[in-house]
Amino acid sequence: MKKDAASVNMGDSIGNYQDSCDIAAMKEVLLHLIREERGQMRTDYKYLLFTPTPSTGKTSRWECKNKNSLAVLGVIKWHCGWRQYCYFPSCPAVYSAGCLDDISDFIKQL
After folding, report:
1. What Rg value do the Cα atoms of the chain yield, rounded?
2. What is the pLDDT of residues 55-79, one digit of tens each?
3. CA-CA distances (angstroms) from residue 5 to 15, 18, 66?
4. Which pLDDT does position 56 carry in this prediction?
5. How many domains does the chain have?
6. Are 72 and 53 in contact (CB under 8 A)?
7. What is the 3-state secondary structure of the chain?
8. Domain assignment of residue 19, given as a range
9. pTM value surpassing 0.85
């Protein structure tokens, strides 16, 4: 069976991509981009990406990730004492005013 050039190139690209990235993480990112396209809620920002994580309670939990490396920077979850969603950093990091605005904007959607 003869393959056309597009399928060969696509296969090569996928193979190289699998070698360099975490496929599960990219699948998660793509699913959330599709949801965003449908107008559900904004999860993709200039430098940050918010992805849901499994939650056992009534409230949702979201990971805040660096968009380039997909490293988890923190978690947004319900804070019982304040009765609102809050950002909990998971590592020491420096945030610009723009990144803090993006985190705030995302929390306001919840």
Report:
1. 17
2. 778 889 999 999 999 999 999 999 9
3. 15, 20, 35
4. 79
5. 1
6. no
7. CCCCHHHHHHHHHHHHHHHHCCHHHHHHHHHHHHHHHCCCCCCECCCEEEEEECCCCCCCEEEEEECCCCCEEEEEEEECCCCEEEEEECCCCCCCHHHHHHHHHHHHHC
8. 5-109
9. no
